[in-house]
Sequence to fold (194 residues):
Amino acid sequence: MSKLFLAVIVFILALTPVKAKTLTGGVGLDWPLLSQYERTETINYYREKMFKDIPRKIDMSRFEEHEKDINYRINRKALKKDLRKLGDRELAGFYLFGKLLVIYGVKYIDDKDNVYYYNAMGNLEYVDILDKPHDRYPHIAYQYNDNGKFIGASYYLSEYDQYVYDDDGDFKGRWYFEKMYDKKAKVIMKRKLP
Fold:
């Protein structure tokens, strides 16, 4: 009787449709899995792509209307509520100790060639000038401070994956989603994205 019972159970299981979770493709963060040699080679590869004929100083008068974020109170409130997408813009917050807002970025939907970074009081600190619209990847962002001095560059593989360098071409880190990794694959900074 027990063999018959077991055979019936196996038969029922064989006829029952199985619901399997479908795995979707995508590349995860490979940075910690690479050898130090491979990470160094990758850092050098992106540096070579970016650091050619970069203007070291620009005229900031073209960004005059962005010297003060006219929506800074609204943007700060949105960031406190973890709202990252507002009608005409997206916000990214950069925090000290995970709580104290230091800088926030504003990416306007109708201005695809620049990203603006403001201090907590809404004053322009940096501007990214992009070589392609911010919704096309890969692209390069050249960053200038409020005086128009070149201070660094980033190579955007995607919205959430960037290689960041200072003005001398020294590697600062790789952003992957909300964490920045150094050349040894250690987390050194965090951010909140849309």
Summary: The chain has one domain: 30-192. The first strand starts at residue 85 and ends at 86. The radius of gyration is 23 Å. The helical segments are 2-15, 36-50, 72-80.
